[in-house]
Amino acid sequence: DAKIPFIENETNPRPLQRLELDMLQKLGRRQLNRIGSEPEPELDKIASLAARTLRTRYAAVSFIDADRQWLKARIGLSTGILKREEGLCQHVLTRTEALVVPDLSKDDRFSHMAIVRDHPRLRFYASMPLATVDGHVIGSLCVLDPVPREPLSIAERTTLRSLAMNSPKPRASE
User: Fold this and answer.
1) How far apart are CA 45 and CA 101, in angstroms?
2) What are the mean pLDDT values of the chain's consecutive 10-residue runs (174 residues total)?
3) Looking only at Cα atoms, what is the longest distance across the chain?
4) What's the rounded Cα separation, in Å, for the pair 36 and 68?
5) Please, which residues bridge with residue 99 across strands?
6) Which residues of 153-162 are buried (b: 16+ CB within 10 A; e: fewer)?
7) Of 65, 105, 99, which Cα lies nearest the Cα of 85?
8) N or C: which end of the chain has fewer CB within 10 A?
9) Contacts for 35 with CB less than 8 Å, ≥ 6 apart
């Protein structure tokens, strides 16, 4: 039996559901022609706009498969690929709305992670799931900062949602 990674949603911590495991196999996320592909200027623009608009030092558009989180577009971050369990964005895979963490160092889900404890010592994190046109969550648009912050305002959440919804979306069959 394969070990099931741990994913939490906003109200109910639970192991990654069988539904997601089945969806990963069906999608063949590595066949979405995004993981490992060349940069996409549209995604770079969205990440840059997210960082500027929400006033954060870092932003990323990431795609997640069974093993890794790949930062397809990134602003201020040097790392392009993380093991899935080392990345923050795996926590949005079971969500339909933003995940906002005002201080990662004070949240048990994240405080042990190297990117929180060590360089770049991330503190603030806000992420919106990215889905295919078929509705399968395959990654996230996130903004991050080394300084703890207040939760996003309604207007800021709306901005993050709008930017995520306007990012180019692949079909699961692509």
Assistant:
1) 24
2) 36 44 49 59 93 97 87 90 86 90 96 94 96 85 97 95 83 48
3) 45
4) 11
5) 127
6) eeebbebbee
7) 65
8) N
9) 29, 63, 65, 70, 72
